[in-house]
Specification:
Blueprint: E1 6-10, H1 17-25, E2 31-33, E3 36-38, E4 52-54, H2 57-65, E5 69-76, E6 79-84, H3 85-93, E7 97-101, H4 104-114, E8 118-124, H5 128-138, H6 143-157, E9 165-168, H7 172-188
Parallel strand pairs: 1-7, 1-8, 2-7, 3-4, 8-9
Antiparallel strand pairs: 3-6, 5-6
Length: 191
Amino acid sequence: METGKLVIFSAPSGAGKSSVIQYLLQQGLPLQFSISATSRAPRGKERNGVDYYFLTPEEFRSRIEKGDFLEYEEVYKDTFYGTLNSEVRRITNAGKSVVFDVDVVGGCNIKKRYGDRALSIFIQPPSINELRRRLEKRGTDAPEIIENRLKKAAYELSFAPEFDVIIVNDNLIKAQEEALNIVRNFIESGT
């Protein structure tokens, strides 16, 4: 029986959600990260089955047709991201709460499906200029990819009001502590 709760994090690329999530996973809470599937190529030191389940666009489409995804989106042409139903079951059946790092549309879809059993958190950058600086500093994307991410960020920011909580990441330590308090209270509540 699935007993765990669901904690959803969404944000524009470069807003700091991965850093917040990694911090939470180190705090001894009964949380486990939901590994998303994607059809994009690995970046840097990313590994299959650890950071993502890397699928070809064709494999991803086939899994969609089989109904294997809780949510998915084609973020860019032939670049899919999604959450496998089996991943959620594996974690919640073990009595842990699931932490998601998903696109804003996916985050909204998971929240709609699970209602009060899910907490949706939007990590917001202080500004688009700061977002550009962070993406450039990261050094993982070509300039045209960064421009695409910044265009997408404006769209993603329009979804922030649909989330249960908005955390502005203008100071990473402060954002991490705020997220920890919110998530701990949610998990420990008797909902």
